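Narrative progress, year one. The postdoctoral researcher (J.K.) led the effort to move from monomer predictions toward full complexes, under supervision of the PI. The following entry was the first complex the group processed end to end, covering 709 residues in total.
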Amino acid sequence: MTQLLLLAVINGLIVGAFYALMAIGLSLIMSLSDVINFAHGGFLAVGAYLAYSMAPYLGFWGGLIVAPILTALLGLLVERFLISRVYGRDPLYSLLLTFGLAFIFEDVTRYIWGAQSLPYQVPGWLMAPLSLDLFFLTGYRVFMIALIVLVVGALFWVMTRTRLGLRIRAGTLDLETVSVLGVNVRVLRNLNFGIGIFLAGLAGVLAAGQLGLTPTIGSSLIMQSFVAIIIGGLGSLTGTLLGGLLIGLAMNVTAVFLPSATEAVIYVMMALVLLVRPQGLLGEEGRF
Amino acid sequence: MTNDGNSVRFDRRTLLKAGAALGALPLAAPFVQVARAADTIKIGVDNPLTGTYAALGKNEATGMAMAVDEINAKGGILGRKVELAIEDSTSGDAGVAVQKARKLIDRDQVSFIIGNINSALAQAIANVANEKGVIHVVPGGHTDSITGQNCHWNVFRVCNTTQTEANAVAGSVIKSAGKKWYYLTPDYAFGHTLQAGMEAAAAKLGGTKVGADLTPLGTTDFSSYLIKAQAANPDAIIILQQGDDGVNVLKQAVQFGLDKKFHLAGAQLELEVLLGLPPEARVGTWVFECYWNQPNVPGLKEFVAETRKRSGGHVPTARTWFGYASIHTCALAAAQANSLDAVKMAKALQGFKLPPEIALMPDGAYYRAGQNQLIPNLYVGHPQAQGKDDPEDLFVVDQVVKGDDVSPTLEETMCKQDWPA
């Protein structure tokens, strides 16, 4: 049992890191633009499908790099022409807009690539487990974690060490002042949205390596990121990271004792956090 | 909520409401298509077009459309043209499926209702159809109770019961893998009865259960369950997930190398799942309910050719045939009874043998009297990584099983039909 629990903890951190990657993109957009991007799962699916379609020409690695970039470009366009129009209005507008976009993304991917699940293949040498005991540590999953650590690390570096990051963080706290100080808020929000969508696209490609590629791949993963943000606290990327890891852990440890409750447990956690610490574990006081 | 000019800050309540709305995303159904014409006979279809069963739903719809065209080419039902009224039941929301069923029956005045892939939804629709006294054909929801404990005089089923599938495959799994089984079971009606069926079938042959996990429908990451299954050290891991869940669990099990340590097997497997898997994950011992590449089955070649024409070159799956046989069942019932009266039609189908060009089975297929369950052949076999002559020839049939040999007896099904006086 102890061994099983230990394996569940390691595995939970792996799964959680993936949820965190998705949640951080969502959280970035929520914090700066005050838009709950319902279409995040749709962008994730687009990233995965683009990588699938490019694989015959660019291979797995080319797709891994190009697909998220293309997804981010799509994100920039969607932000520029659609989402930016509802800034400053009642949140209902952005909710309805991104909600509608989520449907459109799902149906368009179904129209283009079909409802039938597609087999997305990762390179054979990445597939094998690294050791017999830790058979769930496949090369692919280790690679995935390394990449997530790299990307999230780079993001934190950008946020703390660059002018862009500084402005995004400042904008998260007080957008009006940042605007008055001469920062082009429109461009700032556009770039920030693009970064968030890049992370969604990347998460999509990574997910397709382990899951069947279907039009619903995004919506089947998006709820966990939502919960991760609420648990971690809005406005804090560290909090979101923590939230993602926590729900991964909770789901895996629950699977050891009560497998049918793995889905319910994250909502129980969310409810508890909301009762005890409504702003989330690391969320800013007063913001929420 | 405050408006500071540049932006509107939403509050936590909005975020939570938004989250709740996101959870409800699959409920909203974007696709509605209703045919209306006074002199036509309408068949209501209440089947998934979106969600996890969208691909299966699409294939069933292809078979249904094919059957409608065939029927109309031969003069329709009782001389009237047939039309489909199609609704998206969603893949998992019984409330939506019931609402759509009521709409089809009350507003569209359909003479028959077809659905559903999801067993729980099929059962829910069956209850509505029974209350309204409308003939209901279940194309592809397998849970036992539909033609078992909760059977109705007006509800017919084309696909097999989970117990029949389990009986068909259990012997082969024990022979090729061994007797200690660990179950991974989707946590809803279908999974529960399929596992119970496998346990019962295995027990008769000396098989035992060393563990079982119920996985929520729509699970994407199966690693935690696979770790537990591995720790139990079974002879075979019995994978009962279907659709996208089935693709995900098999893909991950093979990535973890579990197919090299244990035998991966299950009961029902569908071509849709095999097509969604990378070649190395096409492994195990399973049962197919219909397979397109079969010798000596009259009418099958034509059926395959027609399906290819309608689906961009793709071969029919069991789902295509479920849809096809369901619609033909409606037409045959009306023709046999020479009436659209539901009771007369249901009586006409008792023990009714499908014509060979519709049954498409080596030993034919008939509706068992007193249960309304179609008894066809089943195909036990194993997948192959790549098709030899056709990329979609991914299954090798090792044994064609007669439905009569593996179906539970009428008493065992516990079906008691309550016919209207």
